[in-house]
Design brief:
5 helices, 0% strand, flat
Length: 116
């Protein structure tokens, strides 16, 4: 993404093609499982997810373009940690020892890689 930014590629175009490829791949996988119909109950969370994911991808693409790519990459791995914490705090997920060790590994790896 950094190289595309240096070549003058607009961030929205990078995000568009990322979303297009992800959508096509997702549609292929969902086609194997079967489609679930949209209802008024699930369309709003789905739209909210789409809007926030698009904004987040635009922000990350911009960060890769102008920031230090190693630091940006390490910070992006923290999404796994935050998602895990959100699952525990909001939905009451229980963490296994494997999940705790993996989360610690992500945090320590990010700290070590950022020191370079």
């Amino acid at each position: 993404m950094r190289e595309l930014g240096r070549l003058g590629e607009p961030e929205w175009r990078v995000v568009f093609f990322f979303a297009l490829i992800s959508t096509l791949g997702g549609a292929l996988l969902v086609g194997l499982e079967g489609w679930h119909p949209l209802t008024w109950q699930n369309v709003w969370p789905l739209l909210g997810l789409g809007v926030t994911a698009t904004l987040a991808q635009l922000a990350m693409t911009h960060a890769y373009k102008v920031g230090r790519k190693l630091l940006v990459a390490n910070l992006s791995y923290l999404t796994v940690v935050f998602s895990t914490l959100l699952g525990v705090l909001v939905w009451g997920d229980r963490l296994t020892l494997d999940a705790i060790l993996a989360t610690l590994l992500i945090v320590v790896s990010g700290m070590l890689a950022s020191r370079r």
